[in-house]
């Protein structure tokens, strides 16, 4: 089954917890702290595997959770870093953040890697918190939580040339006679249910990859028919080949067919109209094809090369393939995806950063405090140790949480909630 779009969940591994330990050896007085740091959590890394051609593997495995780093140990021994989780994806995979809609990675080359969910750093052991004023601290950090996100994977085939046209115009037949590809061929609409790829070689030994895409119909860009599922694959192609049934076997006007397909490409992505294109007048072995071709030439107002061919008898294919190879040599390298129109905003040191937390009042009267940085610090605090709790309170005070709660009217003894944990506000 050909699958070209899936949504998955990825989570980087949490960092290992830091250790609270002390050096206790014979004849070594005042040994001091000896707790090691936790190891780094594993990241979820996507790597391009050249042999893959579909996202089928993600259809049944949609959760990827990387392993946690090892906890720190006594005698200042650091925990082991976890090995990254490598997930194989086919070339042409675009990874989009489901929440923000931003493109995280565009993986096109064999062996190319991208970190999708970063693992958390290991927590620091009590050795790290030793100071002249507190030479034997009884505090350590938990590991940093790994990054978690939902992403959408979209596969856009990496083909140099894309065959487009209405159903049953002969795209699959054309691909089968110019390459070793064996697509399903039938005399009914939507025989092709998935894109097919084939390597084509010209008489002068130039080669390129050609894709046969499922037939388009009017309204495809809005989701009509099957072709709308595969319009994204045309974005990768550098040359577009319009295959037209010049024999008008289904009593359609060839010129109107051409205009309809052009309009569908334009409605889907305006940049597709900038690509070099070639018109293939197919089925020239049929009656009335020559007359329809003459009429088509008269109606065509643009300077696009037209090649009369017959995929069935293989007439005219050599000159067609040579022309496509010539167009590829001159075609520019189009961007694989549209860049954001807004300029990237650089945050300088003197600019005020976003607030690290937000305070709201819940229906039950509890003050909810939320924020990415605040929740990260909360998860890295070991609340089993009094010294760690006091350190967390100092961090909140330094972030301005106490002052912000007073401004919101918080009184002594009222409840404050962070994630699912509640605390009393103490003046």
Automatic annotation (TrEMBL):
Chief place of localization: cytoplasm
Enzyme class, UniProt record, top EC level: hydrolase
Keywords: Cytoplasm, GTP-binding, Hydrolase, Magnesium, Metal-binding, Nucleotide-binding
Alphabetical list of SUPFAM superfamilies matching this protein: Obg GTP-binding protein C-terminal domain, Obg GTP-binding protein N-terminal domain, P-loop containing nucleoside triphosphate hydrolases
Domain OCT: 349-427
Domain Obg, residue spans: 1-158
Residues binding GTP, per UniProt: 165-172, 190-194, 212-215, 282-285, 310-312
Binding, Mg(2+): 172, 192
KW GTP-binding (keyword) present: yes
Cofactor: Mg(2+)
Domain OBG-type G residues, every copy: 159-329
Subcellular location: Cytoplasm
Family statement drawn from the similarity comment of this UniProt entry: Belongs to the TRAFAC class OBG-HflX-like GTPase superfamily. OBG GTPase family.
Subunit structure: Monomer.
Job description of the protein: An essential GTPase which binds GTP, GDP and possibly (p)ppGpp with moderate affinity, with high nucleotide exchange rates and a fairly low GTP hydrolysis rate. Plays a role in control of the cell cycle, stress response, ribosome biogenesis and in those bacteria that undergo differentiation, in morphogenesis control.
Protein name as it appears in the record: GTPase Obg
């Amino acid at each position: 089954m050909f699958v070209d779009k899936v949504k998955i969940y990825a989570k980087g591994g949490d960092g290992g917890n830091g250790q609270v330990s002390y050096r206790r050896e014979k004849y070594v007085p005042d040994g001091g702290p000896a707790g090691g740091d936790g190891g780094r959590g594993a990241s979820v890394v996507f790597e391009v595997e050249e042999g893959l051609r579909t996202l089928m593997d993600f259809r049944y495995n949609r959760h990827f959770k990387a392993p946690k780093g090892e906890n720190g140990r006594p005698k200042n021994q650091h925990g082991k870093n976890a090995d990254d989780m490598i997930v194989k994806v086919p070339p042409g995979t675009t990874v989009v953040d489901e929440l923000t809609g931003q493109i995280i990675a565009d993986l096109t080359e064999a062996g190319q890697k991208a970190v999708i969910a970063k693992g958390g750093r290991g927590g620091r052991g009590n050795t790290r918190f030793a100071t002249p004023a507190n030479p034997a601290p009884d505090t350590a950090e938990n590991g940093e939580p790994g990054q978690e996100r939902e992403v959408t994977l979209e596969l856009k085939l990496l083909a140099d040339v894309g065959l487009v046209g209405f159903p049953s115009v002969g795209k699959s037949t054309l691909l089968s006679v110019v390459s070793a590809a064996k697509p399903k061929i039938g005399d009914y609409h939507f025989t092709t249910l998935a894109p097919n790829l084939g390597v084509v070689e010209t008489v002068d030994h130039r080669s390129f990859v050609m894709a046969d895409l499922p037939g388009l119909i009017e309204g495809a860009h809005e989701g009509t028919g099957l072709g709308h599922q595969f319009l994204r694959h045309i974005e990768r192609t550098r040359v577009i080949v319009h295959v037209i049934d010049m024999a008008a076997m289904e009593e359609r006007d060839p010129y109107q067919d051409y205009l309809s397909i052009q309009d569908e490409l334009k409605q889907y992505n305006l940049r597709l109209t900038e690509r070099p294109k070639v018109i293939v007048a197919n089925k020239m072995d049929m009656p009335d094809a020559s007359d329809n071709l003459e009429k088509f030439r008269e109606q065509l107002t643009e300077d696009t090369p037209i090649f009369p061919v017959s995929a069935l008898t293989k007439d005219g294919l050599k000159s067609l393939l040579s022309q496509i190879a010539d167009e590829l040599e001159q075609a520019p390298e189009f961007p694989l995806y549209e860049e954001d129109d807004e300029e990237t905003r650089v945050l300088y040191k003197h600019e005020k950063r976003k607030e690290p937390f937000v305070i709201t009042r819940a229906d039950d009267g509890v003050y909810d405090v939320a924020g990415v940085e605040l929740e990260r610090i909360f998860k890295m605090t070991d609340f089993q140790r009094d010294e760690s709790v006091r350190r967390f309170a100092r961090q909140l005070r330094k972030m301005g949480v106490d002052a912000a709660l007073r401004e919101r009217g918080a009184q002594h003894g009222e409840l404050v909630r962070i994630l699912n944990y509640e605390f009393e506000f103490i003046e």
